[in-house]
Amino acid sequence: MIDLTGETAIVTGAAQGFGAEIANRLGQAGANVVLADVQVEKGRGVADEIAADGVETEFVECDVTDRDAAEAMVERAVDRFGSVEILVNNAGGAGDETFQEIEDDAWQFGLDLNLTGPYNCSKAVMPGMLEHGNGRIVNISSMAGRNVTVNGNPSYTASKWGLIGLTKHAARDLGPDIRVNAVCPGGSPRGPMGRFVEPDDVADGVLFLASDLSEFVDGTILEVDGGGHLNLAAKDLDLDYSEMADDS
Asked: Is the pLDDT of residue 246 over 70?
């Protein structure tokens, strides 16, 4: 059983979806949980729900694109709990514009939120984690960072690819005192598991990467997509390999 008792986790974008379930799962494993989001009312509600199960929680209003706000979030966590062992960079989002449609402000917003945000928060927790030598950072990327988004805009795709690069570079530079890994949610009804990813699936992956079970896992990208990236098999594309062989 995974036991995070005595440790403190910050989860950004924790007011809903993946972030809310990640916060809940880490709390159930014994961690103190700092929930951060720009959605104050929803975020406080999630924090209260988790606290009702006996978890020590703190809600912090934080725009991760603002470096000062990220620093203040970490200071608040340290003031309340003493140290931060786990950071989950979950806050993110995207519009649905095509490359032809996207404007410069939407492009920049996606990069700021999905890439600079995790950078800001990671830099903010870095000094304390290097000092105590037991830091874990989990970045929530996307299978869009492995290929291309089918729902978001090009800024989302580019930033999620970038977040994978940031994960690997940070892991190289910060180890062994801080392990940095990423989770790529995805999924497809045409994939082997026959469904899209659920918050529980992502929370399970984060819990593994935040625990001692993954103590020798660093700079790794965990694809939590039910094998959805395999959905372009020849049978799905109606390719006939026998005809190809005859032509070769």
From this structure: no
